[in-house]
Amino acid sequence: MLRTNQTVLTEFLLQGFPGSPELQKYLFAPVLFMYILTIVGNMLIIFIIIRDHRLHNPMYFFLGNFSFLEIWYVTTLSPKILANFLVKRRAICFGCCITQAFFHFLLGATEFFLLAAMSLDRYTAICNPLHYNVIMSRRLCFQLAVGSWLGGFFTVIVQTIMLCQLPFCGPNLINHFYCDVTPLLSLACADTRLLEQIVLVGSALLLFTSFSFTAISYLFIISTILQIPSSSGRQKAFSTCAAHLTVVSIQYGTVMFMYVKPKANSSLEVNKVVAVLNTVITPLLNPFIYTLRNKDVKEALKKAVDIKIITVVMRKKVFQL
Known about the structure:
mainly alpha, 11 helices, disordered N terminus, olfaction, cell membrane, G protein-coupled receptor activity
């Protein structure tokens, strides 16, 4: 298609993971297994939270929202990654590429706002426990959840609109396994410095603002925990924050490395390695981090399994009668 003497691209080619096509076929099974495990793990958390009335409180409300986000976050990338393992020509249409980039960053940005809201919940529970139920009301929890989505939307919408308006006239090979902004900008046949600066400033504001809020919350939390006289009390208080703090450290560490840099076209190969951690491995780890270190969730899961076993046994007995 011709326009102003330039060929406008209608599709991109994804370079994918490094290595031979035979090697990439061997990656299909482990990546598929991790994707299924991620979906099942997060759906299980949501199921347990909905089913067990003891978990109907702000902490698990935010955890359920976070698990819901993780399901869609990996789904924006993993099916296409898996399909590309099995084909030689890894093509993606222009609109599909922009859509994938938009939802990937929308859900990612929303997660950071939600992590900040979760830190507020933990701060209130530990530093102001007597007024916890009054402060963290259902209305406030709902507002924080909706605000996280709106914050993520407004963070990425301007960048996405500007990205759509960039001319892409060749080459069309994206040096990544999904439509990331960094390699896309390197393919534009126009001056992208303004958009690079907007991406850099937007990413920095999102990450450092939410991270600063979370860090300040945890400074107060740690200060309060250290004032608890008994060691068992301190351990119990810290255990309620350990899972969230672990997830925060992994999320912020990987994303800050990938996007808060002065040049948009630097370290693309290194970014791909870090992106695997951020888009495939971290979403898989999160359900295990929250369940293995959470006594309430483990008890609710055990109760659900016990009830299921009892139900199956009773049905067998009725059938035998």
